[in-house]
UniProtKB/TrEMBL annotation:
<keyword id="KW-0349">Heme</keyword>
<dbReference type="InterPro" id="IPR050121">
    <property type="entry name" value="Cytochrome_P450_monoxygenase"/>
</dbReference>
<dbReference type="InterPro" id="IPR036396">
    <property type="entry name" value="Cyt_P450_sf"/>
</dbReference>
<feature type="binding site" description="axial binding residue">
    <location>
        <position position="421"/>
    </location>
    <ligand>
        <name>heme</name>
    </ligand>
</feature>
<dbReference type="InterPro" id="IPR001128">
    <property type="entry name" value="Cyt_P450"/>
</dbReference>
<keyword id="KW-0560">Oxidoreductase</keyword>
<comment type="similarity">
    <text>Belongs to the cytochrome P450 family.</text>
</comment>
<dbReference type="InterPro" id="IPR002401">
    <property type="entry name" value="Cyt_P450_E_grp-I"/>
</dbReference>
<keyword id="KW-0408">Iron</keyword>
<dbReference type="InterPro" id="IPR017972">
    <property type="entry name" value="Cyt_P450_CS"/>
</dbReference>
<dbReference type="GO" id="GO:0020037">
    <property type="term" value="F:heme binding"/>
</dbReference>
<keyword id="KW-0479">Metal-binding</keyword>
<dbReference type="GO" id="GO:0005506">
    <property type="term" value="F:iron ion binding"/>
</dbReference>
<dbReference type="Pfam" id="PF00067">
    <property type="entry name" value="p450"/>
</dbReference>
<comment type="pathway">
    <text>Secondary metabolite biosynthesis.</text>
</comment>
<dbReference type="GO" id="GO:0004497">
    <property type="term" value="F:monooxygenase activity"/>
</dbReference>
<keyword id="KW-0503">Monooxygenase</keyword>
Amino acid sequence: MSPPGLFNPWNPGLMWHWKKRLFGLFEVYERFGMDTVSVVPYAYGNPMIYTANFEIFRQVLAGGVKTPWIKHPGTTFQEWGVNVHTAKKEEWKRHRRITGAAFNNNLYTHIWEQTVQAYYDWTRDEGWSATEFASIPVIQTVTSKLTFLIIVVCGFGLNTSWSDEAHTDTGNMTIPEAMRILSLPSPFKYLPKPMMQLPFKALREFRSVRQVVDKYMRERVNERQAYVRTQVAMNEEGDRDMFSLLVRANGNDVMNGSKQTLSDSELMSNVFLMLFAGYESTAHTLAATFALLAVHPEVQDDIYSQILDVVGLDRDPTANDYHNLNKALYAYFEGTRMFPTVVAIFREAGEDIPLPIPVSLTSEEKTTLVVPKGTIVALDVLGYHYNPHYFPDPTKFIPSRWEGDAKGDTLAAFGHGPRICLGRRFSTTEAVAFLTMCLRDWVVEPLLQEGETIDQWRSRVLDGRFFLVLGVKNVPVRLRRRRAV
Ligand code: HEM
């Protein structure tokens, strides 16, 4: 990915991780007989260490505030200042403690209920109440709309619904629409600040959307703080969205005179972060899960019978059912394993660090590699997820492999250790609720082109696509109703 490399026609570029994910005679790790290798650029750039070994993931990601491994969070998450993603050492601990308090059962129940409601609104708006077959040309349009809706309602407390159109209340667009535009992967986010001022139309539009959201957020933070303080003072229960819970957790500390609080700008930076950190990831992963399920009707039947056992047909599933609906959860874990949006997690050695690594792919024997200060270690999430040593038959969709690992602790897609993704349960809650609602009513099938076989659909669709994060290609599916209405 170095500048000269970009002009090399054989350079797999951003798809490197995807193309090299498999283990096999001619693939990187197998070729060198190790699952930890040093990658040395031909012409430009520094050597890096790539690893698909989970023991090394654990070692590198294990340390708390005193870890010698440095996390570089990337420019997108720094836009609004210091937050739990960008903070380091003691500062991170303070951010994590307060933001972590917002991720509680109240929030998960709220997410669950809103997801169930969104499912009903979606199918009603589509007019599918008595339909036997329904076509969805691109499932990502649905998963993206869902996860964005959930983050603005449950994350930010906006009063909007599936059916709301994107019309004006500030200038030309609604706040949810402005937030959506701002949260989409955009190359503008990577431009240095002075370049953002260049007089191009697209840049001007991007700037103005940002200003609209910025101004709106600042006003809401002030408003919400005052509101939550009154609620706390009057001992009232308060709202369940993440923003209110965050303001409340911080407010409680402020009132207790604790020094461990967030400033207004830190609070806002965290709210922005939550809005933009995970909704696209969840949308991509859910789309991949739908695609995999479409070619695995037997897995759907298995999930369906569990839904019948746990929920039945006469009531809606509730957040209390989450732990008993683990077959839907395992399908989502498996989708996350095969299409992890974050393909690698990077850490820089802050000092010379000894790292015990296995001497070969098959050996238990270890040798010590001293990683020199300044070296970047890429924890190759994709490589690990396709490492047959950990996941036998890694190219096969086998949700039952997660039985016995109910929290997905061996999944690396959400990171690992103290800095593991704060939104992991947020993401799995909406995924399990949505899959449960869909699979109870419908069988998901591939939407085939004329003359296309299921195998051809599989090779056309079940492939990676990379734009800042990894996703599956556009997924066309058909829903077939399970029971007559
Ligand atoms: C499929 C969905 C998601 C994936 C794959 C994902 C992935 C990740 C990964 C890999 C990390 C760790 C990065 C590192 O250690 O360098 C992370 C951190 C984080 N994620 Fe997620 N994420 C998802 C959803 C979410 C959601 C929905 C939210 C919030 C609502 C969220 C909020 C965060 C935050 C705040 C952190 C930083 C935690 C810290 O540094 O203490 N994520 N995520």
